[in-house]
Amino acid sequence: MFADFLKRLVQSAPAQLPDADARLALSALLVRVARSDGHFDAAERARILKILADRYDLTPPEAAQLLANAEILETEAPDTVRFTRAIKDAVPYEDRNAVIESLWAVVLADGTRDDAEDALLRLVANLLGINDRDSALARQRIETRS
Known about the structure:
Largest sheet: none
Order of helices and strands: HHHHHHHH
Distance between the termini: 36 Å
């Protein structure tokens, strides 16, 4: 189902993703972060659905369908480096802090921070061109809202 998408994702010089593919890639990255600690619980799933609905102005069934597709893609997706590169190419720099905030919101959804989640967030933030300080500030903004 996602073979063509994945082929474009791993090309040595991938073209910028169309909006629908960028949505799917970001959604799958949210799933990857949620699964990074070995648990993908109801709180994380609910948080992802809310992020998708808010970010893309989706109805609950549309957000649920995007999440279902993202879960499939995440299991088939390449390593995080190439996966994140596609998102970096698709998301303008000024919007990447919001991506990091969304990722932190998923990490913090279950009320605990895991070393695996922290390590993945550090890697992803760096790959997206977001420094550790700005990532920490994004995390603090999410903690304040919760």
